[in-house]
Each structure stands twice: as C-alpha cells, then as structure tokens.
Amino acid sequence: MITMKMNNLDVQAEEGSTILETAKFYGLEIPTLCYNPGLSNFGGCRLCLVEIGEGPRTKLVSSCTYPVEEGLVVHTDTKRVLEARKMMIELMLSVAPYSKVIQDLASRFGVKQVRFKVRNEECVYCGLCVRMCAEQMDARAIGFQNRGFKRKISTPFDMRSPECRLCGACIYICPACQMRCIGPDPETAVCNACLNLDPTCVDVYDELQCWMYDAGRCGTCVREKPENSDSKEQVRDDNP
Amino acid sequence: MKTLKKINSIDELNKTVEAEIQRRRSEKRPILTVSAGTCGQARGSLKVIEALENVVEEKNLKDKVKINVTGCHGFCEAEPNIIIHPHNVFYQHVQNKDAEEIISDTILNSQIIERLLYSDHATGETAQKEEDISFYKKQMRLVLGDNSLIDPTEIADYLSIGGYRSLSKVLSTMTPEAVIDTIKQSGLRGRGGAGFPSGNKWALTRGAKGEKKYIICNADEGDPGAYMDRSLMEGNPHRVLEGMIIGAYAIGASQGYIYIRDEYPLALKHITLAIQQAEQLGLLGENILGTGFNLKIHISKGAGAFVCGEETALIASIEGKVGTPRQRPPFPAVRGLWKSPTNINNVETWGNVPIIIDKGAEWFSQIGTNGSKGTKIFSLVGKINNTGLVEVPMGITLREVIYDVGGGIPGGKGFKAVQTGGPSGGCLPKEKLNLPIDYESLTEAGSIMGSGGMIVMDENTCMVDVAKYFLNFLRDESCGICLSCREGTQRMWEIVKNISEGNGKAGDIELLDTLAKAVKDASLCGLGQTAANPVLSTLRYFRDEYEVHVRDKRCPAGVCKELIQYSVLEDKCTGCLACLKVCPSEAITGELKEVHIIDPSKCIKCGACFEACNFDAIQIE
Hints:
By secondary structure, chain A is an alpha+beta fold. Chain A has four domains: 2-77, Ubiquitin-like (UB roll) (Roll), CATH 3.10.20.740; 86-124 and 175-197, no CATH class; 127-173, Alpha-Beta Plaits; 199-240, no CATH class.
C-alpha cells in the first residue's frame, strides 16, 4: 500500500493505481470526460487535472494517467486547477457546442462564455470511440488520423472498414454526438439551461413559490441555522 | 570500403591509436581542409573539391599536398571555406575557379591570396588564420573543434586524433560505477533541452530492474534553424559513437539505437558508415576488445515529426507505434523501450562523454557556471553577420555571442530580440543581452536553453509576426492528444493571426495571456508545456507592440501585410524605373526621371520595390 496526501487527508492507495482511482475511492470528486473505467487511460481531455507537489514547485497533471507515488501530495481543487479546467471546458465548447455532456460541464463549473470563434466539429478527440472499438469491441475499425489541428477520427483511408460491424458502440460512448444539447445560444455558444435543473426552490419557504403545494415539507427550503447559533437543530422558517 | 582488421584487445587498440597519431604527426604535406557538410555542399564545396583534385592530378602534386574533405567547420557564412594546415590559413567563399590559384600560390609558393581572406564586418581588418577570426576567438570548440581535422568517413582519422582512447581507458581502468561517478562529478547536463543531469539519469537506468537495457541517441533535431546535431554527426560521427559505447558500458546496456531524422541524409550516411567501421574494428558487437562487453547499435529513421524528439514519443516511434508522448512516470529509465529500462541522451550529450573521460571530471567542471558545466553549441542564425555553429562555454553572455562571435547585425540595423530554444523557446529583448547563458537564467527570463537554436532578429522584425510563425509551426506539430495543446495552439494562432491582420479587438491580448498560461499548465508533455512560450515571452517583453496592432491597427516594424502600405517618397525618388520593373502586379506607374507612384489598390505588398530601390525612396507605413 502507498500512503499519500490528498486535499490534506492521509490516504492509502494500491500500487499501480492512479490518482483518479484513489480520489474516487475516497469520494473526492474530479470531473472527467475521456476517462472510462472499462477502457485504457488516455489523458486527452485534461479535465481531471490535479495539482501535485508542494511549495513553489507544484505542477498540474492529469489524474487519470498519473500513477500514485509514496508521499505524493495532491490537491484536487486549487485555484490553478479550476482555472485551467474552465479553460479546457471553454475550448471544448468552442468545437462541440451541441454536446450535452460538455454543456453540462460548463454549467457545473460556471463557464459562462466562449471567447473563441465557434468551429462546430462535433468532436473533441477524446478518443473514447477509438478505444471502445479497439478494446471492448476488438474491432479496431476506427483510429486517429494526422496530428495537431488536422487530427481527425476515421476509418483507414476514409473508406468503409470491413472490420466495422456497425455495432454502434462508438456512438454509444461518444460525449458529443449522441446526447444533444438544443439550447446553446449562438452568440455565446453556452446554454447554461442545465444550471436550472437543480430544484428551483428558494432557501426560505414561500407559500406562493412552493410548487409542490406541501408547505415546504419536501425539505428543499429547509436550511441549517448559521454555525454560530446556539442550536444546531434544523429549523423551518415558516414566516415569510 | 576497405575491410578493417579486427582489434581483439585493449592493448591492441592503444597500439593502433598510437600508430595513427604517429601517422598524423609524420604527415609533412600541407593539408587543404575543405568543409563539405550539408551547408558546405549547398554552397558548392563539392565543385571546389573536384576542381582542387583536378589541379592536383594535372600537376601531379600528390606528394606535395593532401586534400582532406571534412564536415562543417561551423562558419556557415563563409562557406565553402578552406583551412590550410599546418598554418591554419582560412579562405572563405572559395569557388572552383580559385582552385588553381590556391594550389599554385598558397601551397607551392606560400603566398596568401588576399581576396579570399575573411575581413571583419566591424573593423574591416582581414584575418589570415582561423584563430585570428573574431568568429572563432571567443569560442571553445571542445566538441565541434575536431570537425576540421578529420575525414568523417575514415575511422583511422578519428583514431589519429586520439579517438577511442577514452573507451580504452574506461574498459581497462574503470568500473561502470566509476564512469557514472565521473559523469556526475563533471556536472554534465542533457543538451537536448530539459537539462537533466546526465550522470543521475545513467545511474537511474543502471539501478532499474530489468534484464535487458537500452541506450538511445536522440538525433531527431527538429527546431527550425537549428542544426548542431546534424553537423556533429556529419563531421564527427565516431565521437558520438564512442560516447554511446562508454554510456552503454556504464549503464549495462547491450542494445543501442540512434533515432535520426531521414531528412539528414549525409548525417545518416556518415553515422551508418561509422557503425560499420566500428563493428569491423571490433569496437562494437560481441565481446568488445575481449572484455566480454557486448553492444549492438541500430539505426532507426524518424519521419520528421517534431514531437518525436520528446523521449516517450521517440520510444513509441522506435517501437513502430504512432509517435505520441505518454505520461511520465514511469520514466524511460524505469520503463522505456519495449518496457525495459532505457537511457536517452541527445547527440551533443553523447559527444561530450569521451571528452569528460579523457580530460577528467574536474577539468570539465571548471568550464561554465555553477549549475551548468561545459560548453554548448548554438546555431547562430537570423539577422546576424557571422551565421554559423558556435560552441561557447556556459555562462557567456548573449551580448558576447551575438556581437563578438556573431559580429553583430548586418546593415547597421539595431538589435531587437533573440529567440533561443527553438519553437518552444522564447524571445529575449535588448535588456536581456547581458544575461549569462545557462539553463536556469534562460528559464527565468522566460525562454529555454532548448537544443541550442539561436535566432537573432533586427529592428525590422515584428514580434507578433514571430509569435504567429512559431504558433503555426506548433499547431501543426502538436501530436493532438491533449486538448490543451491541440486546441490551445490552434486558438492562440487564430488570435495572433487576427491581431496581425488588423482584426484584433479589445480583450484579445488578455485572452491570449490566460489561454497561454492554461496551455502551459495543462499539457502532458514538454511540447505542450512550452508551446505557449513564444506567446508568453513576446507578451512579457513586447506587449506594447501587440497593443499597437490591436488599438492603432498599425505594425511598427512594417511586417504585417494587412497593416502596412507602400508609398514613394517624392524627394528621394530619382525615377530610375527599378521598382516599376520588378513590381509583379503592375501597381507602380511613372516615367523615366519622374517620380513614381504606387497604386495601393493594385499593390500586393510583396516588398519587391522596397528591395529593388537603391535610394531608400520606398516607404513602409
């Protein structure tokens, strides 16, 4: 067993596992996109970035590919991580604004605008389909072509591949082409509608606004008293 | 190729080396050394060699003069050049018609041909000998110096300058641990870019678990304008090979690879030949010199992807996979080529090894600064008088390299910036000219040592345009796995392109800055982590230039086509028709001895008129 520190917690991890796996085990949330437990680790989407090291010499690494090390110090949610992560989401949105998965990520991390010219490629080259085809379907019908900005995913020579059994696994796993977001605003390329999918209720019970007509019994508007108050008991604010 | 007799023991090697040294000493004929590296050949040195050989043949002078065809002498500006030993007379820009004169005057009558001598750009003084030339004065040519002494296709020539003596010393007197200790003490650091201490790297690979171990020579030099490794492999392949053999012995490797770009045909030819010769002599192969140490060196040709210079991508490429980097750790020293411990060093690093073994770690560690020892080869290119390969001790200032060795900026123009470290490096301004060159100081200044490219830019260079050029290179060379690098370089290029075309808007510079920092932070490999350097360093030192482009839609250096206009200065135009004749779009009108006019609607801003005008009458605004 390897012992290390994660967000100031002492954690133990099995040798050969990754930072992401350890974080998941301990319930620390790290967003991912190109990661799938059934496939090999790719490290392409850079969403699962964490900051490792101490003092002035820290760096960001993708937690899905970085193996655990004895004595490693990991932080999953520093300012540096969050800023880089937001930029990654913004970059992804700029090439695949219709992907619901990516729009949801934008909502979750408060990405409110895309400052780049939208170029709708409907693909973020996360490689899930390529790995799915090769590793789970044992077909290797699709792969990456070219490099850099010319990179694309296709069959060899862009022809119908005899290896392809039309199983659809690539489409099933795709974060961009299967689930569609219908909401992106052409101006900002950001939908943010999903932000509103959380319960709409307010902190404080309000008879007029309670859409369940149950006088706040669902518990959404029930809140904890501020910490410095005497009683930690939950209270209901019945008087609007 | 003649077959060489195999050497079976260390004693025999020592005797052979001694005999070759004697042979060189007993050479009484003057030697005409003609540089015929790729750069020399491009400037016509093969024709010069042919002409020289013809003259010698015709006059039957075989016993009076020896012609030695060598690799690059480093002074590319003066190519094709000839050094005449033993007096080191240096002739530059030699043409085939000069051959007869050189033989009859200089060789037979010891007369110097004035017009072929190098004259200093600043003082106008001519220099007779190699060591009098300002270009060579401040250099310390440890690794490259022997290029002008030996024929790279002859192992005997390398032996005659004491070659493979270090190998003999290592195999007869040193344990592998002692070799590693020597390299550690010498302070040698990787010359490929990152500057990791080589001795530590060797020790890691030696200590790693694994039956089979590999060494690799990284000769995938891909920076635009950098050709140090090519020149060393063309001019002195055995030095690299000797370094590798010593390294393999120290690390415990039995297999080696040289990963070389296929765009380097001459280097490839010479290194292949060198391996063959070393094998025939018994310096490579099974039971080397009877010591029981085995080493086979293979050549692996690269297809010219920039990212394959990154060690994990290079390994993938040798394995026959797509050349893409992977997460480190595990480092190649633990899990490298075919999952075995692997040590990768750059050509120049390997080339330093025999010197350290020969002269000792202490001697080597006295050269350079506290953290960076030894010398470094730079390819000094761009707007500089003495273009060429310079080898200088670490810690020398940029000013010394550019003004003393490089001879300053041509045409009396002002210095603006120097770009070090290739596409992943940065641009350093005038204020940084006194910066001592070592790994730490360059990184602190926002650039990197890199493999040693050094591009000098004069006042007519637009820094936005420079950033655009490097970003265009990087967006193409990014492997495309990391979103941050693939999409980041593309978006940075788009923003910079917009700015250079006059479409920049408020907020663009700030966005560029934020994006560049994110790309630097979030990327997996060295390429991505440094891909933002061209932007970050130009933003750091030349932010005002970006601002002028965005705010005033003006390019102060007069480079960005969309933002400039050509016009004729009435008081300077003599009406000579020179510009009118070269204009490809017929945008210039005028009669002889009358002021010409440029029609902006037809002008394609090619700059041909500007070049053609002898009276500085074309204005760029």
